[in-house]
Amino acid sequence: MELHGGNIIGASVSAEGGATFRATDPSTGRALEPPFHIATEAEIARALELAEQSFPAYRSQNPEKIAAFLEAIAAGLEALGEELIARARMETGLPEARLTGERERTTGQLRMFAALAREGSWVDARIDRGDASRAPAPKPDLRRMLVPIGPVVVFSASNFPLAFSICGGDTASALATGNPVVTKAHRGHPGTSELMARAVQEAVRTCGMPPGAFSMVQGMSTSGIALVRHPLARAVGFTGSQEGGRGLFDAAAARPTPIPVFAEMGSLNPFFVLPGALKIRGTEIAQSLAKSATLGVGQFCTKPGLALGLHGAELDGFVSALGAAFTATPSGTMLHAGIAERYRSGLAGRRATPNLRVAGESVNPGAAAASGPAAVLITDAKTFLGNTKLHEELFGPATLVVASDSRERLEEIARTLEGQLTVTIHATPEDVKEFASLIDILREKAGRLVFGGVPTGVEVGNAMQHGGPYPATTDSRFTSVGTAAIYRFVRPVCYQDFPTAWLPPELQDANPRGIWRLIDGQWTRDAVSAAKPAGA
Predict the structure, then answer these.
(1) What is the pLDDT of residues 101-159, one digit of tens each?
(2) Residues 265, 447: Cα–Cα separation, whole Å
């Protein structure tokens, strides 16, 4: 399929702007064809206007049709075959096996949300039956459910060109709940984004969806701000840097009508190795930590970038094993030259920090234009606590070990940590008892607590929480992975004393969709007339 380099506005291709850019092969620095047209403000406005026009028709689609639409997108991605994988590999430097697995995750997410839409209980229907005889005032009939909010703007992530991109979890969860989506392609993989967007465009056509249900624009940071500021945008999904996410958040808050920005902005993902676990299997834990921290050249938002333990012979052995594992890890090609340069610069800054030393690093610095060497560094608690720069994420294959002299010092460090996506704890039953107060502190710092494992490898399911207190995300109540991701793009509406004929099917007495509903405090799939009142 020949790439056209344009913007996809509903059923059309648009290339009105004269400004263009090209993707770059990170392994060679070579610019790739074709040039991609940066969306003009008029094209961005047209995409959102079309989404708004299509919103009433799209939100009214039968859930079965929405499910079939999502499944058609998944089939379209699979039909792209090797072409999609080859283009993504050229634009990101990621290996074929990783990209093939990521495509499976992407299609799996789409089908998971299709099943959610088809089943329908996500609307969280709640019915409190009225009682006209109640004294001193009659009780009203109240029926509440979740509804879509309108056009959602989704930003593609650099490190997941498929699963957190044009057809990723943000897009799938928004479409599943009846929201049109306008996506912004990441400038690092515009060709990959176009291929996926064209698959969605074809699914819109074959499934008979309103054309504004999906659009994609190419562009730079100014394009993103224009999308967020447009008055027809209702919410934003973003995965990327803290600087980028906060910029969008501030722009959205400054609007005459503010909108929510659900930004996932990275994390240190602290990795606590408590004394008993360190003594029993320190070398094994070191090896698993090294694999996790260097996986994908350290370009996962859940990469463990900070490891902590108590000073002593066991921690010395742990650091020695960790250093050997990092030294044996070859330099990898990072997503693009800009990310690699920021990583190498950040690593150099840490090297220059007093009382911090390198415990192991890649022997071969790498020949790729965007090469990133693996490195593990070590310092003491006093240095870490006194240098806030060490509390910042270093995106790439590096980890900092902090040796503490007491449990109280570990707790002090835990209290100073900012919000995290994950915290990992390795401990024995005795450690859990002794360090109970530390674990209690850590629960307040992260969205996901990992016991005895590694934080990389985010399972896509119903119970996953991929989010955490700021600055890990802008709203810790929500997740960007798993079926609960839908709750970012819906809002509750309550109908009081409405005639049954005017109610949505999900709230009608007969329950024609057969969904789970909370009727007078009891979960049931029964019709209202068959449900027992609370306390009966």
Answers:
(1) 999 999 999 999 999 999 999 999 999 999 999 999 999 999 999 999 999 999 999 99
(2) 13
Mark 309-339 as b/e (b = at least 16 C-beta within 10 Å). Answer: bbeeebbeebbebbbbbbbebebbbbbbeeb
Quote the pLDDT of residue 530. Answer: 53
- Which of 530, 266, 291, 281 lies closest to 427 in space, CA to CA? 281
Of the CATH numbers 3.40.30.10, 3.40.605.10, 3.40.50.300, 3.20.20.450, which one belongs to the domain with range 7-14+39-120+147-265+481-487? 3.40.605.10
Tens-place pLDDT, residues 46-77? 999 999 999 999 999 999 999 999 999 999 99
Between the CA of residue 507 and those of 275, 418, 488, 529, what are the distances in Å? 55, 42, 22, 13
Q: How far apart are CA 104 and CA 462, in angstroms?
A: 18
How much of the chain is helix, strand and coil, in % rounded to 5?
A: 40, 20, 40
**CATH match of 271-451 with 1.20.120.1770:** no
Is residue 459 within 8 A of residue 511, CB to CB? The reply is: no
Query: In the structure encoding, which two tokens stand for residue 514, read together?
Result: 């057969």
Is the pLDDT at 327 greater than 90? The verdict is yes
| Contact call for residues 505 and 512 (beta carbons, < 8 A) | yes
Q: For residue 345, how many other CB atoms are within 10 A of its CB?
A: 10
**Residue 186 CB partners (closer than 8 Å, separation 6+):** 155, 156, 157, 158, 161, 165, 193
What CA–CA distance (Å, rounded) separates 109 from 354?
Answer: 46
Pairing mode, strands 306-310 and 398-404: parallel
Instruction: Give me the residue spans of the domains in the chain.
Output: 7-14+39-120+147-265+481-487, 271-451
pTM of the model: 0.95
Q: For 196-208, how does the pLDDT look when each residue is reduced to its tens digit (9 = 90+)?
A: 999 999 999 999 9
Residue that the structure tokens 């089908």 belong to: 111
Q: What is the pLDDT of residues 360-369, one digit of tens each?
A: 999 887 777 7
Q: Catalytic residues, which ones? A: 264, 301
User: Rounded CA gap, 440 and 419, in Å?
Assistant: 14
